[in-house]
UniProtKB/TrEMBL annotation:
<protein>
    <submittedName>
        <fullName>Nickel ABC transporter, nickel/metallophore periplasmic binding protein</fullName>
    </submittedName>
</protein>
<keyword id="KW-0732">Signal</keyword>
<dbReference type="InterPro" id="IPR039424">
    <property type="entry name" value="SBP_5"/>
</dbReference>
<feature type="domain" description="Solute-binding protein family 5">
    <location>
        <begin position="71"/>
        <end position="437"/>
    </location>
</feature>
<dbReference type="InterPro" id="IPR011980">
    <property type="entry name" value="CntA-like"/>
</dbReference>
<comment type="similarity">
    <text>Belongs to the bacterial solute-binding protein 5 family.</text>
</comment>
<feature type="signal peptide">
    <location>
        <begin position="1"/>
        <end position="24"/>
    </location>
</feature>
<dbReference type="Pfam" id="PF00496">
    <property type="entry name" value="SBP_bac_5"/>
</dbReference>
<dbReference type="InterPro" id="IPR030678">
    <property type="entry name" value="Peptide/Ni-bd"/>
</dbReference>
<dbReference type="InterPro" id="IPR000914">
    <property type="entry name" value="SBP_5_dom"/>
</dbReference>
């Protein structure tokens, strides 16, 4: 069993119990965390198996996303959009070096942007990469990013955990790889043992406020039960994330006075997408009845155990442009049934499934078979819909087949999540135009689909805030009224730790785990 060095120094758990949280934190050298897999090679520009929480520990962006969609300085201290909206000019932070001693300057920014653009096809999902024409160093402390045209989310997408973060030019290879993971962030990767752990050490040359902790050891633990046992025994100090612990286990820790627990504000939305191009959900009355006939409050209470709030809109209101006063239809089985009756979907004498024109009101509800939470939610939804005369057939399949259905549109209802900050709402909406996405397939049958796609493209190029807000109002209101989505709940991050760890804040995005701020006042 891994033992905390401060317990060894002070003679064990009894000594720790006698310490105040502040005193315990002051002597803490290492925090032990857990994750389902190793951190990966930690290339700042690439994706799986690189883990985003770890990439954010080593690599920094020009700007950061803060609560509510604010953009704040990081490696850039100031920025301005040029008049035509086709370029951004950044003033770089002075006195910053990579952990190998290489200076961070405009040449380093250009080298990293060029490396991303050489692999542009790999990053085509991110519209900013498609928009970038190039980067140029005006002087060592100033860099200019040229775009094909105005693109208002440029700063939001520069704040993402990947791909536009910066490795030391000394480690960038001509083949697109890196010789070693070297960034400007508060941590350096000290050791990796495959299938066992990753060890991060404090970067003592960090330009900003240095972490209180000296080390973060991340043990590879593949499931919630193993993580809960490790918390109980003291083998790990912290559980943090959306699904690191199941809801029942989290509530058990919340009732245990030996532990501190907390739930973050909404960080994304758990959804069911309805196929508007496939019968019977091509009928707006069916989609609206489904939205009215699902008891979200009971689902959240009994399955998610109130660890996530019930959702009534595509996005939570703590994201930019989303606080529009939209309301989900209240749960009302009688009204849902009446809506179906009015649309010609009637119950045969003695029957349980409504029919119209000789067709049963039946659909496939698709989920990943190995995902116990999706299965439980699917069963609850199936039960609710049966009570209003809709037969939902549960189709649980392997992940590859499931994602194939999202791409092809071979579903009646299918689970789908928004991406959270800083992607919501702009990047999630932008993806709705791609036929390979479940959102495109779900919306394909809407009479205004072409207009939705046109307006999404337009809003991304609008530089005037008021005009942009009006476009978002039309887009989000239209999708809401068409009932293409059944919002289930808003994702939250959950954390569990012993009080001796001190203050553990939430990050501003779903994937940011703020190890560098743990223990600060």
């Amino acid at each position: 069993m891994l033992r905390r060095s401060m317990l060894h120094a002070m003679g064990g758990a009894a000594a720790l119990a006698a310490m105040t949280p502040a005193a315990a934190q002051a002597t803490r050298r290492r925090l032990t965390f857990s994750w389902p897999s190793n951190a990966g090679p930690l290339h700042p520009h690439l994706y799986s198996p690189n883990q985003m929480y770890a990439q954010s520990m080593l690599y920094e962006p020009l700007v950061r996303y803060a609560e509510g969609g604010r953009i704040v300085p990081a490696l850039a201290t100031a920025w301005e959009m040029e008049e035509d909206g086709r370029a951004w000019r950044f003033t770089l932070r002075q006195g910053v070096s990579f952990s190998d001693g290489t200076p961070f300057d405009a040449a380093a920014v250009v080298a990293n942007v060029d490396a991303v653009l050489r692999n542009r096809a790999r990053h085509a999902w991110l519209e900013l990469v498609n928009q970038i024409e190039g980067a140029e160093a005006i002087d060592p402390g100033t860099v200019r990013l040229r775009l094909q045209g105005p693109y208002y989310p440029a700063l939001l997408e520069l704040s993402l955990p990947r791909p536009l973060r910066f490795a030391s030019p000394a480690v960038l290879r001509a083949d697109g790889g890196i010789a070693a993971p070297v960034g400007t962030g508060p941590w350096v990767l000290a050791e990796t043992a495959r299938g066992q752990h990753d060890l991060f050490r404090r970067n003592d040359g960090y330009w900003g406020e240095k972490p209180v902790l000296e080390e973060v050891l991340v043990r590879v633990l593949g499931d919630s039960n193993a993580r809960a046992l490790a918390l109980e025994s003291g083998e790990i100090d912290l559980a943090y994330g959306t699904d690191q612990l199941d809801a029942d286990t989290f509530r058990r820790f919340a009732a245990d006075r030996r532990f501190t627990t907390a739930i973050s504000p909404p960080i994304g939305t758990r959804l069911l997408a309805l196929n508007s191009a496939l019968a019977p959900t091509d009928d707006p009355a069916v989609r609206q009845a489904i939205a009215q006939g699902i008891d979200r409050a009971a689902l959240v209470r009994h399955i998610l155990l109130d660890t996530e709030p019930a959702a009534g809109t595509l996005f939570a209101t703590n994201f930019p442009y989303t606080d529009l006063g939209l309301q989900a239809p209240g749960f009302d089985r009688a009204a849902a049934a009446a809506r179906l009756e009015a649309a010609g979907w009637t119950l045969p004498a003695g029957g349980r499934v409504r029919r119209r024109d000789g067709r049963d009101l039946a659909l496939d509800l698709c989920f990943i078979g190995a995902d116990a939470l999706q299965k439980a939610i699917g069963e609850a939804v199936q039960g609710d819909l049966a009570r209003i005369g809709i037969a939902a057939r549960l189709v649980g399949e392997d992940a590859s087949t499931y994602y194939g259905r999202q791409r092809s549109g071979d579903f009646g209802m299918i689970f789908n999540d928004t991406w959270g900050a800083p992607y919501d709402p702009h990047a999630f909406l932008a993806s709705m135009r791609a036929p390979s996405h479940a959102d495109y397939q779900a919306q394909r049958g809407l009479p205004m689909k072409a207009e939705i796609d046109r307006r999404i493209g337009a809003v991304l190029a609008i530089t005037d805030h008021a005009r942009r807000a009006e476009e978002y109002r039309w887009l989000l209101t239209t999708l809401h009224e068409q009932a293409v989505y059944v919002p289930v709940s808003f994702f939250t991050n959950k954390l569990v730790h012993r009080p001796s760890l001190g203050r553990v804040p939430f990050g501003d995005t779903r994937t940011d785990i703020p190890f560098a701020r743990i223990g600060r006042g």
